[in-house]
Design brief:
By secondary structure, the protein is an all-alpha fold. It contains three helices and no strands.
């Protein structure tokens, strides 16, 4: 697979992943976390807001690998 095709596939995969991840993180936060102490809410949303970076980094690294 050439670089251009990998970038297209990776971009589509990242967009789909981020939409699904955001919806699941919000649903989990709204059902389980909201209503508890604001400290726990802040920790959850901080971790959930940054956790997508790790899998996205792997996809970006794959997209940029040479042929």
């Amino acid at each position: 697979m050439n670089v251009r095709t990998r970038k297209l596939v990776g971009t589509i995969a990242l967009v789909v992943f981020l939409v699904v991840y955001a919806v699941l993180a919000m649903a989990l936060g709204a059902s389980r976390i909201v209503g508890s102490s604001s400290f726990y809410e802040g920790i959850y949303f901080l971790v959930a807001g940054l956790a997508w970076v790790i899998p996205a980094g792997f996809v970006v690294r794959w997209m940029q690998s040479p042929d």
